[in-house]
Amino acid sequence: xxxxxxxxxxxxxxxxxxxxxxxxxxxxxxxxxxxxxxxxxxxxxxxxxxxxxxxxxxxxxxxxxxxxxxxxxxxxxxxxxxxxxxxxxxxxxxxxxxxxxxxxxxxxxxxxxxxxxxxxxxxxxxxxxxxxxxxxxxxxxxxxxxxxxxxxxxxxxxxxxxxxxxxxxxxxxxxxxxxxxxxxxxxxxxxxxxxxxxxxxxxxxxxxxxxxxxxxxxxxxxxxxxxxxxxxxxxxxxxxxxxxxxxxxxxxxxxxxxxxxxxxxxxxxxxxxxxxxxxxxxxxxxxxxxxxxxxxxxx
Length: 299
Ligand SMILES: C[S@@+](CC[C@H](N)C(=O)[O-])C[C@H]1O[C@@H](n2cnc3c(N)ncnc32)[C@H](O)[C@@H]1O
What we know:
Layout: E1 3-6, H1 9-12, E2 21-27, H2 53-58, H3 74-97, E3 98-107, H4 113-123, E4 126-134, E5 143-144, H5 145-151, H6 155-160, E6 165-166, E7 173-180, H7 189-196, H8 203-212, E8 222-224, H9 241-251, E9 257-260, H10 267-274, E10 278-283, H11 286-298
Parallel strand pairs: 1-10, 2-3, 2-9, 4-8, 9-10
Antiparallel strand pairs: 3-7, 4-7, 5-6
């Protein structure tokens, strides 16, 4: 039953039987031009992939940065809408394959998550909650304003703006969006749990994780999980296996089916396998797909 397929998940999911999946857990492209596979818009501004002359000069630090949006260009303004349209391409099929009452966890990034939420709601999902994944460290690239004035030899303004920055605060949390497929009209959630074995969450497992001290300080919707050494090196946005294990055990039982349509180097699948769940993964990039196969063999 478990399988990993190379290809476009928007097409591949059409082959999955209706109401056959117990959980979708996916770290989807965030649509912020982080990498080639994350470009989900028609904005041709050369700065978007770090290719403007000044970015080229600044070197590799800018390459995967994504461009700060100006706010005035129509092409920039279109990007969130284009992300909504892209999410709408798959959201209905995600709803179709899930069992009634089943959960769907999506890592969608802070900047565009709202568009993903709207696309999922418009497809028929209920937006249940937002979990915060809290980390100890994160790359932080805000630029000091005084440095810009220094470069212009504007000493006076450099002093005035000392301590001010352009950009964002250090991003120490990532939102995990929690959706639910509605259960049938006329049923109740508990009856639905009896029929489809989904719809509740396992608080006991969260409490156990707190006791095991994996970084969860209290049993709540803040999951503090630090990536380990083994959580790095296979994919530029690789997630922590432990984090995926917590999310899977929160919403499924052993033997149930977990789907990740954008599985990268297969972190969701590794976690599902560790927990004796069935898994289905789709990945469009051959290099990452090969990494998954190698990883699953080694695991
Ligand atoms: C954010 S990454 C997932 C990383 C993953 N969490 C991990 O730990 O490796 C999203 C992945 O989706 C893949 N992807 C993008 N569009 C896709 C599509 N239409 N079908 C299948 N995979 C796609 C990208 O190649 C990328 O590897």
